[in-house]
Design goal:
The complex is a heterodimer of chains A (about 180) and B (about 625).
Chain A lengths: L7 H4 L10 H15 L9 H22 L1 H11 L14 H19 L3 H27 L3 H29 L2
Chain B lengths: L22 E6 L3 E8 L2 E4 L9 E2 L1 E4 L5 E3 L1 H9 L4 E3 L19 E4 L6 E5 L2 E3 L1 H20 L5 E6 L5 H13 L4 E6 H8 L7 E9 L4 E9 L2 E10 L4 H16 L7 H17 L5 E6 L2 E6 H26 L8 E5 L6 H11 L12 H13 L12 E2 L4 E5 L3 E6 L4 E2 L1 E8 L8 E7 L9 E9 L10 E8 L5 E7 L5 E8 L5 H49 L2 H19 L3 H14 L1 H16 L4 H5 L1
Parallel strand pairs in B: 1-11, 11-12, 13-18
Antiparallel strand pairs in B: 1-2, 2-3, 2-4, 5-6, 5-7, 8-9, 9-10, 13-14, 14-15, 16-17, 19-22, 20-21, 20-24, 23-26, 24-25, 25-28, 26-27, 27-28
Classes of the chains: A mainly alpha (about 180), B alpha+beta (about 625).
Chain lengths: ~180, ~625
């Protein structure tokens, strides 16, 4: 059984850092699952089974959090007692918000004109911005500038959502 | 330590699991069901005395309460379709208003408006009870194989089954008195049967064409995690449609108009099915129906059924697109369901994917075989296995929010088990009750999603509006089944949660059904023991009477003779009393009383037999 007081990084024997080695994460995940998964306790008493269920849920949640750069960012802030989900528009520069509005309008236009290639180009440019913002997040976080890091995180939320919408739009356009 | 085993000197230590757990795999199908067991990594399906491995998923209810399952039930269905329940799997976890198609039996909504109830001569039956009867007959087959009660079973469900359908399946197992080791996805089971879970990285298509349904699943295996990426299919397409094209052809060729009698249609269906099977091996087959006869070539048959196969290929293409997977990424294609025996089906699927298809395992049995292999692992018979089968939730779980919208809490394809918590607050002073409506589906409007259950949180500590913070935890287990827990954070007081499933049985309903069935089983047992004791008593009387007639006067004193005759009289009287225990006791005492007589008879018989033989002869 695992220690439920550990934070996600400790649980996976990883250093608390924005950089996570995928191979190590996957390997540790398998190891933990093998240890706590309810399938290993089909014959145990109810209490042990409930414990297995809860611990496996925790392992799954931790894995998902560390695997995704967006969720990992929020979690890093949370470890520093910063609620990343608490929305504060002041964190987002007006320039960024305006740019987002424009992007959304552009997306609408591309959908209306069935422009699959345009969608592809837009995806590439948003992806590039996402990568840059992730780097910014990391450097702000390392310098313990949590206010700036949080602002980067909120920008990332917009960018991930936009990427999702581009995917959905493309699916719709390619559909018969 | 209950497990004792002795090892020979020099041999390795006995393993802790030296006693084999009795676990089975069950494929609870729409048309047919199967049960299989595995030993040492090899599985086989269990068949009846006539070598039938498939159990038709058909249950017949007689007016006297007698329940028949399988082939016998299907036979009864010919004359008594109203009391013969088939395809009950389609009703599991569904609402009355979901049933838009005709059924040969009558259904009505239950009082709470949700679940469909089937009206039979033996009373109203829920789909869960009907499924439990099928499970019971499969469990019996497993018990006969092991000669003992089962320790547990893995039961397969379609990958797309929502929580309510899975819960209904598990409830049926509970009613049948079987411990569920795991509800396993059918495509996952098929992949396990082929050992695909042992490969490193695979993208697999499971093509399942049954009698009346078609399912296609795209799965990915990544580092021991089996994930269903996408599923698709047609709930009304299967082998029966292939038969129908042959029937249409015969009618057209023979110039017969469409209004045929029921028995004519039955005969035609048989002929068509026979022709289909014959064409799996032969290039052509002769068909005769009444005064007409003709020949159907495989080529023509292929042309006839191609439009149906086209539909399945289209579904495959859609599934690839949904999962964003390229054709070239598919490494294995597994064929499941009896209809994939048709060579044209294999040919077309193989052609589409540009690869050979797996048909080495009987497509009717492959799901049960995979389930049995997994049951063997879960029961602990194959310890040290580092492959772990992780499943995902097939449809998003969420709750109803203001304006009839669905808010997703656990998105589809999240690895299970999973728990998510959410916080709510009260909006009235002293509010002690709160209600949640849990849904499953991908759409935004509540009306477009499946309603799973309404949860009522009670015992919220009375506080000013907005002061109580209630944390609700949604816990989904490895079978995809959900539980809800709630707690007020500032006081730590747990709320009690009352569940009202939308289309299922409440816990108390199932408890009652189980108690009722125990009571019924007890009275069945009593009746059986009375019958057995009566038969035994009559056998004793008859044997004694004939012995008395033969040797009584010769070997017994008058007193002894009278005593035994009196004993017979007495036992006769007690037999009529219908008191099982008294009959048993009286039989025993009469039997004992006659022991002396029996001994004397034996002696005389031996003496007679030995007369005229020398000792040497006998000893030789």
């Amino acid at each position: 059984m695992i220690d439920t007081n550990l934070n996600h990084f400790e649980l996976f024997s990883l250093p608390v850092s924005f950089q996570v080695e995928d191979a190590v994460l996957d390997q540790e995940y398998k190891k933990l699952q093998a240890e706590v998964h309810p399938d290993r306790f089909v014959d145990a008493d109810d209490r042990t089974r409930l414990q297995a269920l809860q611990q496996t849920s925790m392992v799954n949640d931790a894995y998902e959090t560390l695997k995704s750069p967006l969720k990992r960012s929020a979690y890093l802030l949370k470890l520093h007692d910063i609620d990343a989900e608490e929305h504060n528009q002041a964190h987002l520069q007006e320039e960024f918000l305006l740019q987002q509005l424009e992007m959304r309008e552009a997306l609408e236009t591309l959908i209306e004109s069935d422009d699959v290639e345009g969608l592809e180009a837009m995806r590439n440019s948003v992806n590039k911005e996402k990568t840059g913002t992730l780097e910014l997040f990391e450097s702000h976080f390392l310098r313990k500038d949590f206010t700036a890091a949080k602002s980067n995180y909120n920008q990332l939320q917009f960018l991930f959502k936009l990427l999702d919408e581009i995917d959905k739009a493309e699916e719709k356009l390619l559909d018969y | 330590m209950a497990l004792l085993s002795i090892s020979e000197p020099g041999q390795s230590k006995p393993k802790a699991h030296a006693i084999k757990k009795r676990a089975v795999g069950i494929d609870l199908g729409t048309t047919n069901s199967l049960v299989a067991v595995a030993t040492e990594g090899h599985a086989h399906t269990l068949c009846d005395h006539e070598d039938h491995c498939l159990v038709p998923s058909v249950v017949h209810y007689a007016a006297d309460g007698k329940v028949t399952v399988g082939y016998d039930a299907a036979l009864k269905g010919v004359d008594d379709s109203a009391n013969t329940i088939s395809s009950v799997k389609r009703l599991m976890g569904r609402g009355f208003e979901d049933i838009h198609y005709d059924l040969p039996y009558e259904i009505e909504a239950d009082e709470n408006g949700g679940m469909p109830l089937i009206k039979t001569a033996a009373g109203k039956k829920s789909p869960v009870e009907v499924s439990a009867e099928i499970l019971k007959s499969l469990v019996l087959r497993g018990e006969e194989e092991f000669g003992d009660e089962l320790d547990g079973a893995v039961i397969t469900v379609p990958a797309y089954f929502d929580e309510a359908q899975r819960q209904a399946t598990k409830d049926a197992a509970r009613l049948a008195g079987i411990k569920v080791l795991r509800l396993l996805g059918e495509p996952t089971a098929a992949a396990i049967a082929y050992g695909l879970d042992r490969k490193q990285e695979e993208t697999v298509i499971i093509y399942d064409l049954g009698g009346g349904t078609f399912d296609v699943s795209l799965m990915r295996l990544e580092k021991g995690v089996f994930k269903v990426l996408a599923t698709g299919g047609d709930a009304a397409l299967g082998g029966d449609d292939l038969d129908r094209t042959v029937i249409q052809w015969i009618l057209a060729e023979a110039g017969i108009e469409d209004d045929l009698s029921y028995s004519q249609l039955n005969a035609l269906a048989r002929i068509a099915r026979h022709a289909k099977h014959a064409l799996s091996d032969a290039e052509a087959t002769d068909i005769s129906f009444e005064h007409w006869s003709g020949t159907l070539s495989r080529e023509l048959f292929n042309n006839l059924i191609d439009s149906h196969i086209d539909k399945t290929i289209k579904a495959c293409r859609r599934v690839l697109r949904d999962a964003k997977v390229e054709l070239s990424e598919i490494s294995d294609i597994v064929m499941v369901g009896g209809s994939t025996r048709t060579p044209r089906v294999r040919e077309r699927v193989s052609e589409f994917f540009g690869a050979e298809v797996h048909t080495e395992i009987d497509p009717d049995k492959v799901v049960a075989v995979g389930a049995a292999l997994q049951a063997d692992v879960l029961a602990g018979n194959k310890y040290g296995d580092d492959i772990l089968l992780l499943d995902v939730i097939p449809l998003s779980l969420g709750i109803e929010t203001m304006g009839g919208l669905m808010e997703k809490i656990i998105p589809r394809n999240t690895t299970i088990p999973v728990a998510r918590a959410q916080q709510f607050t009260t909006y009235k002073d002293g509010q002690s009750v709160m209600s949640l409506h849990v849904l499953q589906g991908e759409r935004e409007l509540v009306s477009d999603c499946r309603s799973l259950a309404k949860f009522e949180l009670r015992d919220i500590p009375p506080m000013v509006a907005g002061a109580a913070i209630i944390e609700v935890t949604y816990q989904v287990d490895a079978d995809g089944l959900m539980e809800v827990h709630a707690r007020e954070l500032s006081t730590g007081i747990a709320s009690s949660v009352v569940v009202k499933p939308s289309y299922g049985l409440e816990d108390k309903d199932i408890e009652k059904m189980i108690t009722d069935s125990y009571a019924a089983a007890a009275s069945d047992k009593q009746a059986r023991s009375l019958q057995e004791n009566k038969v035994e008593a009559e056998r004793i009387i008859e044997a004694l009477q004939s012995a008395l007639a033969l040797d009584g006067k010769k070997l017994l004193s008058d007193e002894e003779y009278a005593e035994l005759s009196e004993g017979i009289e007495k036992l006769h009287e007690i037999i009529d009393s219908a008191d099982s225990d008294a009959i048993h006791l009286a039989s025993e005492s009469l039997n004992e009383a006659s022991l002396v007589f029996a001994g004397r008879r034996m002696d005389t018989q031996i003496k007679t037999a030995l007369a005229g033989h020398s000792i040497e002869e006998i000893e030789r």
